């Protein structure tokens, strides 16, 4: 018969196991936990998962050089007999898109989720590839909601407006939805709309990231019969044509005040006047003053053009430290850094979902960019100065209409039956007048 202490010990281990299973970790059989690549990332201590920095192993000892992050190599005696290699399988993501003459599948939706900041002719190639993959079925294009002066200078509304001008063939497919902050939001919405299958179209350099993330939480956050992550084609930063055009190159052109290079990155559907207006909007979003030389570190604006600067700041722990909150620019996911690799980080969201990100795809996260009432489900936005905080406070105030769609600011025009004057009346009504 088990004694009371054995019962408590097993219960705590079970709790740690459940947490590890949620993070898709595998046990090494000795209380340690490995991620999907086989790296040692955590250990069960007092019934809880404790994450380890790179180079640490059981008992806090350093791992021998050459074995960092890997399971101990099996001894010669324990090595299994070699087996015949199985027939190679073609990954779903590399499968050929369906031919154009196939019947439309109403159960499948094709989605493209990206930053488009600013939109370029390279993005036009991605949208055309997505259209071909959709094969006449539903196609939805979701520009991300992230905005900051360095890597995402255009706010979502302006970005969507220019995308519809630049890509008129996809005007009805481009969706401006403030709730679609992450790729998870997009996938959950697709399931709620009744789709059984989903195609996610991304650039070739992001295919693996989206494949691992989307498949990892299928059956947990959402449930699809089939998820295909399809490449829109090879991207080459050194190429001169469409394949080499990127938003990073466009932001660099604005930094260099090089309108000619910027113009080469926009499609012919955008005339010179609108292109100049887009150039000016990007410059304003980057907080660059016209005609004045700016002192801006290139790795912050376009990290792919200054990888050395990014690496030096990262290795010196000036950015992306353990415990910092960051946002992945490709997927929109927000999480806390729990482990730092040589050029990547392991992060966990507030809901306990783990994701891996390359340093070049990250930005430090601040709630000031948020205009929604809740940062995450059950987590209200309480940062003073944001419109999201005002929405939350307004909903908590008696006499105000409820709803996330309010954009009321003090002194703004009336909306849904109340205005700044209503606020004044409410305050005066309940103010205790001095005698």
Main sheet makeup: 5 strands, antiparallel
- Which residues sit in consecutive blocks of at least 5 with pLDDT less than 50? 7-13, 54-96, 98-103, 403-421
The helix count comes to 12
**What percent of the residues sit in helical stretches (DSSP H or I)?**
25-40%
The CATH architecture of the largest domain can be given as 3-Layer(aba) Sandwich
Mean pLDDT: 76
* CATH fold group of the largest domain: Rossmann fold
Tally of distinct domains:
4
Quaternary organisation of the protein chains? single chain
Q: What is the succession of H and E elements?
A: HEEEEEHEHHEHEHHHHHEEEEEEEHH
Describe the strand arrangement of the main beta sheet, using strand numbers. Answer: 12-11-10-9-13
Radius of gyration over C-alpha positions, nearest whole angstrom: 25 Å
Provide the CATH top-level class of the largest domain.
Alpha Beta
Number of strands: 15
Beta fraction of the residues? Answer: 15-25%
Gap from first CA to last CA: 76 Å
Task: List the defining traits of the structure above.
435 residues; alpha+beta; Rossmann fold; SH3 type barrels; 4 domains; 5-stranded antiparallel sheet; 4-stranded antiparallel sheet; 12 helices
